[in-house]
Amino acid sequence: MTTYKEHIAELMKNPEFKQAWDATEGEYQAMRALMIARQETGISQKELSSKSNVPQKTISMIEGGNTNTTVNTLAKIAKGLGRELKIEFV
To answer: Tens digit of pLDDT for each residue in 54-88?
Structure first.
């Protein structure tokens, strides 16, 4: 049985898969970071919506990987979580 990381490493050998993966990596990172932060904070999407003034549907779409959101929206969400938005180029 292979691990998730091993499976992805194998898939990355396919140039078409790698191109598609790279094209969505930023969205995936935003989605994952939001889900983790919200879980750590212990609030629902509805509560976060109220605290951040961002529609619950938008939060759901970000967490589901179904939208390419703006930095402004992510900053509002971060504030609603009581956190700061940090963007890095690595």
So the answer is: 999 999 999 988 888 899 999 999 999 999 999 98
Per-residue pLDDT tens for 21-48?
Answer: 888 888 888 899 999 999 999 999 999 9
Domain count for the chain, please give it: 1
In this structure, is residue 5 part of a structural domain? no
Distance CA 45, CA 39 (A): 10
Any domain includes 90: no
Kindly state whether residue 14 falls inside one of the protein's structural domains: no
Task: Tell whether 57 is covered by a domain.
Answer: yes
In angstroms, the CA 4 to CA 42 distance is 27
pTM beyond cutoff 0.70 = yes
Return the half-sphere exposure (C-beta side, CA atoms, 13 A cut-off) of residue 24: 13
Asked if 77 contacts 58 with a C-beta cutoff of 8 angstroms, the reply is no
Where in the sequence is the domain holding 44, given as residue range(s)? 26-80
